[in-house]
Please model this.
Amino acid sequence: MASASSIRLADPGGIQLCRVLREDGSGLLKGKHGPLPDREQLETIYRAMLTTRLLDDRMLKLQRQGRVAFVGTASGLEAAIHGSAAAFDEEDWVFSALREGGAAVQRGMALYDYVAHMFGNDDDTAKGRQMPNHFQCPEVHFPSWSSVIGTQLPHAVGAALAMKQRGEKRVVCAYSGDGATSSNGFHAALNFAGVMKAPVVFVVIDNGWAISVPSAKQTAARSYGSKGKAYGVAGFDVDGNDPLACYQEVRKAVDRARAGEGPSLIALRSYRLGGHSSSDDPSRYRNPEEFEYWSKRDPLLRFERYLEAEGLLDEAKREKWVLEIQTQIAAAVEKAEAVGPPKLETLVEDVYEQPPRYLTRQVVEALRIVAEKGEADGVAGKFPL
Amino acid sequence: MSKLTLVQAVNDGLRTKMQEDASVLVLGEDVGPKGGVFLATEGLTAEFGEERCFDTPLSEDGIIGVGIGMAMNGMRPVCEIQFQDFIFPAFDQIVSEAAKMRYRSGGQYSVPMVIRTPYGGGIRGGLYHSQSGEAYFAHTAGLKVVIPSNPHDAKGLLISAIEDPDPVLFMEPKALYRAFRQEVPEGKYSVPLGSAQTLREGDDAVVFCYGAMVPVCQEAAGRIAEQKGQEVRVVDLRTLLPLDEDAVLDAAKACGRVVVVHEAPRFCGYGAELSALIAEHAIEYMEAPIVRVTGFDTPFPNTLEHYYLPDARRVTDALERVLDF
Model:
């Protein structure tokens, strides 16, 4: 167990961390800032952060009650996720990792689609194929993610190169966590993007932990932002609990990419307040003092103080929004739970565009056995992490 | 003797070898203070220090590649790949490097390394926490592939795997990690690689299986005995490569009716090799077609996982078909 003096700090020391908002949220730091979100965007970012927090709370409760199988929450990362997501346009693409599902909602995915996916029911757009927290929404250019770490990063580069070749002024957002920076995909993606000047922005949400492995053991580099240098990719380190700084630095990177100036790497330094997932017990490996330190730096509270100081938020408004969002979530949960699982026949769909005959035979066989011997029992095992 | 779960037996096997042999070390993601996501390496860092049980950066390719280098230079690394589904970034290192080192160097270099990895369904893990990829590796000359089905064998086979002079892929049925306890001897013992075991006697039919499908097949054999009064032999292969060919052919010839069960997809699955082996060497003994019960030829689903996985219902159906043929 690490001693108190070795806990992860908001300011790592030795590197310049970009910050706009004071740590107590009371206002902006002195200096030249921008581009910053306008009033409407501030509200959008805040509501998205609040929605993610409330969704996570609700999903975690459902998981504890055995109604949802797995949840990977974004607690503590809301500023990083929603401040950065706000910097992309509607027509841009977003490749996500485990915790950025809220960005799809921010971009316009129906809350019900989010919840239906968590249940993996017959309304899930992925037909119950994936574990919870593997969101997709083609309507808002948010492709499907696998659980294999870092694999989406080269995809993001490829999608960006396709846009570039067609002469579109679109940009791709490539989210990953700190752990993914060790993956083959990260190396290949940064290298290709640099060489080919792909219009892509790599957004690394450094939440301090890859399950139980601290960032300090993930890399000997001084910072994740500094990793861009060797690839010829502009790299920056940002206070990931400062939604304004996240927006500003990512927005500048998006503008550069759109102008044909190539990729950037933006590392958002934040902290995972929850476990890796609903099944993880972080007390096995994490210093409680570190958790205390970061829970005092909750990005939602910091942003609320700023919005209050700017006259954009008060307690009544906040309560109204919380109630509104909670009501939407409750309605979505009620609807999703009333929908059954996907039909057995769906098992063989989408392996190919058209099911080959042998797959059709396999499903016919399964239906015969159900008719003769009854339905399959559910599985007994629980997800471990 | 103490009663252990399969995952505790794995832990005990690692500890036993680490106590005996200072060259044995454990590396992987989250194997250190957390003790692995399934707690298979719990307590090893505390007991043996960070030099001998350590967390790595998140790179399967790195874990296996570094393990190979250690093995080439006098160590006995046990690499953990957190889920078998995550092994593919390291496929190159396993298939092109570890498996070929002895052959390509004319026996001058070898890779005495174990890769432990939980495989298979049954935990609501969906596409990427449930796969059974044994066939990819059983197709690779130079590797050994081992899959235990119970705590006793898990410890004994793991000890044999660590002592083996060649690279061994040790696939652990995660669905059985905590499914039941069994008496496991304390200290060192081994179960030899390449040796199948008959878990239930019978000569009306034989079912070949391994890993998490073993209790499923035992249950099905019990149902057949109860419903039809016929006795089904259950053979647990335990090692897929090298296969205990004698055990397979002897049982096939003795029973004349064969069912092969695995949860991996059917096409080019391990059952295809078993069926071909029996067809080549014992077709004249067969009184019914060889029937396979397998996962679907699809990726692994999430919500419908229980239909994808072979269960006693499906194995019983297949046994009835060969018995009634």
In short: Chain B touches chain A through 51 residues (CB under 8 Å). Residues 213-228 of chain B form the longest helix (16 residues). The two ends of chain B are 45 Å apart (CA to CA).
